Sequence to fold (146 residues):
Amino acid sequence: MSALIPHSPGNPPANGDRIAPPDDFYPALSVAEWKRRMRVDDNVSPARSIEILTSAMYDITDELRPWRARQTATALAEGRDTAHYLQAVWQRAKAYELEQYRDIDTTDSGSRRAEGIESRIDSALQRSRESLRSLMGRGRATIVLI
Fold:
């Protein structure tokens, strides 16, 4: 016997769903937009979503700090640059969300499920890195001689 237990999104965040950036150069983030674009289900509470998205935002802006110091504009250019920044943050947040909500299951099917989640985490982190590199005007590939 099985039953469907619906999940509710919980209480909305007190400040709406906007997360202010650490620097006016970057755009504010929308939790609802991230959840919609990255297909984050409603099992992730609004408070947890804010925490995940905020962590990703700070990690991305930290990585962009040297690049940002060389910029002369007062804000990130609308269009492509903003899209790359948002994609970098959203993909990083998606990877964090997947890492937080994976189960530990030692069965064979659990092992296959874990491998699938690992693959999704790796893909999200790769897309985040590609978006960062595009924003900074760097190539998409890094080659290291061994």
